[in-house]
Amino acid sequence: LHGISKDAWKRYTAEGSWRYEILAPGFKYNLTDMQGALGLTQLAKCDFMWQRRSLLAARYTEALSALDAYELPTSRPDVQHAWHLYVIRVRPGALTIHRDCVIEELKQRGIGVSVHFIPLHLHPYYRDRWGYAPGDFPVAEDYFDRCISLPLYPGMTDEDQARVIDALAEIAMRYRRTGAAMPLEVSPAAFAAPNSAGERESMVRTPLTNADHQTPIPASPGEWQISGSRRLLDLAGAVAGLIVLFPVFLVCALAVRLSSPGPIFFRQRRVGRGGRLFELLKFRTMIVSNRGPRITAAGDPRITAVGRRLRRWKLDELPQLVNVLTGEMSLVGPRPELPEYVARYTAGQRQVLSFKPGITSPASLAFVDEESLLAAQPDREDYYSRVLVPQKLTTDIEYCRTASLAGDLKIIAATVCRLLPRRHGRDTSRMAPFACSEAIRKAGQVDSKPA
After folding, report:
1. Do residues 268 and 335 make contact, with C-beta atoms less than 8 angstroms apart?
2. Integer Cα distance of 240 and 413 in angstroms
3. What pLDDT score does 277 carry?
4. Nearest to residue 168, comparing CAs of 85, 89, 115, 93?
5. Whether the model pTM is above 0.85
6. Disulfide engineering: 315 pairs with which of 232, 307, 310, 394, CB 3.0-4.6 Å?
7. Which residues contact 218 (CB under 8 A, 6 or more apart)?
8. Are 152 and 83 a contacting pair, CB within 8 Å?
9. Phi, psi of 421 (to 5 degrees)
């Protein structure tokens, strides 16, 4: 307390004296009553806030551990980590951009991050007063040059955290340095069948070897994929579809507008050919909300009454004809995925990025009842990323190996047939999830057995 020799209160009591001496440099650190009351209130929330921070930190670690571009913080089992900060570091040589550029990329996506901390010896006061210079503490400087503090606070929503994770995955994929180490992945044996929660916790993430990869498809697209005829087919199909289905477009747009407040179109960033990002268009089928799981399954309460009908007949996908017109998509091709999942692809799986994504594909037909399948899973996110994504990629990779004009026309025809009203009350939700249409099997494009 100011470094004085006597208690201030005693200077004004009978046993005290007004005389005092300052014996050392000091500061006034005692709390006011208001600060004390606020502190007691915050202490009552301490456990809850720590639990929330710990949960968010665990989610960061689980999601980002699949990316080889970042080094993650760790905690010892014998220590209760406060998780005041969650600091990652850009792995040396993993990206083609510096840490500062990563921060700028996040800023452009509306994500605020910081750096904790700038080494003291680099600040003007310490340089001028004590003569420190860059290079005096190389370990501290290396840490500073690569660290990024991610958003982490008790009020952070799951959706906000998902935005941060998606952005980091997207940046890691876009600026990945050629020849960088392969990312860590869950052992391929884990894809064989759904595991229990206990089995998931026991999975060991190990670097992939060549033996772990599927036989890659050719690195360059075949003649049909890049031919002018394919582009003409896409343009003709998109234009014809927009003209013929224009009344359907108007009805769908009006229904979406009247069904619930919000925009008519749903826009989502997906990964296209060559890893380029684009905005995939759909009719909005859900209420505008920041709450709920990221993976949508049948019966999701966020889906509107109109949305259920649009999804049933796949009418929500019609706006993607605009994506075809702009050249971002094709009528037939591997379905585009979110950056978060693409960042986890193996070397063989990444080969699908050599092909333009499509509105429909053999995988789309094989998994036409994907939402019903997900509804039966206790952990939809885990089942989707661990089981469905690899299964769909296997199917689409097989298509990419043998794509042809005749095959694409049969896939389009099969898609139309699949969406027509079912006869005799046939319930497709009970169909085997990996069954493909007869037209696709005859075209020799897909093996109907599970991969």
Report:
1. no
2. 15
3. 81
4. 89
5. no
6. 310
7. 351, 401
8. yes
9. -55, 135
Handedness of CA 350, 355, 356, 357 (dihedral sign): negative
Distance CA 446, CA 363 (A): 9
- Please enumerate in sequence order all residues whose Cβ is within 8 A of that of 285, keeping only pairs 6 or more positions apart, or say none: 256, 266, 303, 304, 306, 307, 308, 310, 311, 316
Please report the pLDDT score of residue 353 as a whole number: 85
Tell me, what's the pLDDT at 378? 86
Residues of the chain with confidence (pLDDT) below 70: 6-9, 11, 179-227, 290-291, 421-451
- For residue 357, the model assigns a pLDDT of 94
| Distance in angstroms (rounded) separating the CA atoms of residues 74 and 404 | 50
Q: What is the pLDDT of residue 7?
A: 67
pLDDT score at 269:
87
Omega within 30 of 0 (cis) for the link into 266: no
Spatial distance between the Cα atoms of 390 and 189, rounded to a whole number of angstroms = 12
The residue with tokens 């960033």 is 269
317 close to 344: Cβ distance less than 8 angstroms: no
At 433 the pLDDT is: 34
**What gap in Å lies between CA 183 and CA 167, rounded to an integer?**
17
Tokens 């200077």 label which residue? Answer: 11
Query: Which backbone phi and psi does 425 adopt, to 5 degrees?
Result: 65, 25
Q: Residue 53: is it exposed, middle or buried by C-beta count within 10 angstroms (0-12/13-18/19+)? A: buried
Integer angstrom CA distances of residue 417 from 92, 260, 391 = 52, 31, 23
d(CA 42, CA 50): 12
Which tens digits make up the pLDDT trace of 254-272? 999 999 999 999 999 898 8
Alpha carbon distances (Å) from 198 to 61, 195, 201, 245: 18, 8, 5, 49
C-beta separation of 207 from 89 below 8 A: no
The secondary structure element, H or E, covering residue 172 is helix 158-174
What's the pLDDT at 426?
A: 42
